[in-house]
Amino acid sequence: MYVSNSFGMRSLREYSFEIPQGITRIAVFGDSFTECVDVRNEEAWPYLIEKSCENYEVLNFGVRAYGTDQSLLRYRRDARIFNPKIVLIGFMIENIRRNVNRYRPFYEHNTGGLGVKPRFLTKGDSLVLLPNPITSSRKLQKTDGLAEAHQNHPIIYGHFTPKGNLLIKNILLSWMKQMRILTPESSIKD
């Protein structure tokens, strides 16, 4: 059975913003494999890490079908206030297509939902957030809304390109800068 807490984390418990003395706080982000949608909370790997390591708290911010871009947005919106010492990013190759997609049915037709989201573009070594193109269900029903959702796609679905890989690199760079792993002057070598 799936249980989440009042902050939308997959958890059987609540977490305070203040980290208890002697505890290392870990926040995990990713898609359904991080969220662990097919198992009970007690079988989810973030829960098992927390239970097996007495001085750790593991906050599970995973969300099914998320790309690393949405995980970054969730970190900025929901997780920074918890001041994690360690951030783990569950990454799958599928995330590349999710990161460059604004409308999920464009590349996965049997998705069963509408799945519209904002996305990032790269500008040099920086990320520029494009807002969600569809702001209402009425706009989604119009064909011009779908055309707007399809703008600025760097790939033809099902094919990876260097531009798509650059987007992944820049999203990961942004994560590292936010976590102070890299300074703004640092870079990842190709």
How would you describe what is shown here?
Helix content is 32%, strand content 13%. It is built from 7 helices and 5 strands, in the order E-H-H-E-H-E-H-E-E-H-H-H. The longest helix is centred in the C-terminal third of the chain and has 17 residues, at 162-178. Strands 2-1-3 form a 3-stranded parallel sheet. Strand 4 and strand 5 (126-130) form a beta hairpin. The chain has helices at 32-35, 45-52, 68-79, 94-100, 137-141, 143-150, 162-178, and strands at residues 24-29, 56-60, 86-89, 119-123, 126-130. It has 2 domains: 1-92, SGNH hydrolase (Rossmann fold); 94-173, no CATH class. Helix 4 (94-100) packs across helix 7. By secondary structure, the protein is α/β, with parallel strands linked by helices. Mean pLDDT is 78; it is low at 152-164 and 181-190. It starts with 23 loop residues before the first strand and ends in a 12-residue tail after the last helix. The protein is globular.
Radius of gyration (Å): 18 Å
Instruction: Quickly name the level 1 CATH class of the largest domain.
Output: Alpha Beta
Q: Which fold does the CATH topology of the largest domain refer to?
A: Rossmann fold
Helix proportion range:
25-40%
Largest sheet: 3 strands, parallel
Domain count, please report it. Answer: 2
Number of strands: 5
- How many distinct helices? 7
* Assembly state (oligomeric): single chain
CATH-level-4 superfamily name of the largest domain: SGNH hydrolase
Structural class by secondary-structure content: alpha/beta
pLDDT average, as an integer?
78
Shape summary: globular
